[in-house]
Amino acid sequence: MEYGDEIVRRVRDLAPVFAERARGAEEARRLPDETIADLAAAGLFEMLVPKRFGGAERGFEEMAAACREAGAGCASTGWLSVIYTLHNWMVGLFPERAQAEVWADRPYALIPCVLAPTGTAAPADGGHRVTGRWSWGSGVMHAGHVMVMALVTAGEAIEPRLFLLPRADVTVHDVWRTSGMRGTGSNDIEVADVFVPAHRSVPLLDLAEGRSPGSFVHSGALYRTPLVPVFALTGAAPVLGVAEGVLARFAERTRGRVMAYSGERQRETTGAQIRLASATADLAAARLLLEDALRGVVRAVAEGSCDLRRRAGARLVAAHVAGTARRVVNDLCSAAGASAQFTDSPFQRAQRDVNTISGHVVFEPDAAYALYGRIELGLDPGPVTLV
């Protein structure tokens, strides 16, 4: 068994533990420290860290498979599995000096990243001074560093840049009171006129095009991969995992459930049989679609041909997979009966979680479908589109 496959197995074995902790994570509005420790011990966070800094330097396909398994146990755990693992890969896209600073003590870091450019950065001697406030800081409650996107204005030009800061340089505002995904602790991040040296920032365009400083430090194709396709596809993995977890629970519940009033066993009803089969087929198709898209991006990067059409296709697949997962979860939860809505039921939690995470901008179906359609039909996607 290869190292990547072993990590997937370890996380799969942990999924029932994550499920047991899900209610506590929701009430605390952050993941338990034990869950972070378990994921770290499984080797997940260092999967995409370069070998020269002690990481495993594995691939996105294995990483997505592991995060899908985590999502089957707990949506918030699955989402932060992606956040922390993918953002370690993003550190590998910064200049080498920044990488050495972040990974000085261990081959992974816990880093939230907000790509919405809701801050500003003014050029200063040797770097920039960054100011702003960012929402949706998933994972900030365990963070040692943060990454935020800010706009740099130089004359008439405006350049979005990603900035890497120590956790001590930011203020976290406790605002994360939501109906779903509560365990992610996605609180606001504020930076007040903090100096960030030049080696701790990267232009967004370089990340989007796969030509970041890190791509010249590390020879592997992993570090020449455009940001948006892998962000969208790996992000969809735990959403799919949530639906797979609900399907497994629905099958188990249906086998033993006796219908109120009629006394009929639910497993003997045609409706339950059809819903089980339909959900099985839909999720299997979504999984194949996701795996094929990730494999295609990896292959295209290795061949030097990850063009706009393929990148837009990744957005299309991610939105479609997330939409399929949401539909399946809502359908199965409605068929599980009213008692599935009690607060100690994993059904209602999964339903709220998947409905919340499906609202993420990268999974917005109209935007993703229109983007693919425009590019397929030969139209320009526009200057501010994430692709």
From TrEMBL:
Entry keyword annotation includes Oxidoreductase: yes
Domain Acyl-CoA dehydrogenase/oxidase N-terminal: 10-101
One of the record's GO molecular function terms: flavin adenine dinucleotide binding
Domain Acyl-CoA dehydrogenase C-terminal: 234-364
Family matches, as InterPro entries: Acyl-CoA_DH_C, Acyl-CoA_Oxase/DH_mid-dom_sf, AcylCo_DH-like_C, AcylCoA_DH/ox_N, AcylCoA_DH/ox_N_sf, AcylCoA_DH/oxidase_NM_dom_sf
Superkingdom of this protein's organism: Bacteria
Keywords: Oxidoreductase
PANTHER family referenced in this protein's UniProt entry, alphabetically: ACYL-COA DEHYDROGENASE, ISOVALERYL-COA DEHYDROGENASE, MITOCHONDRIAL-RELATED
Protein name stated in the entry: Alkylation response protein AidB-like acyl-CoA dehydrogenase
Provenance organism: Actinomadura citrea
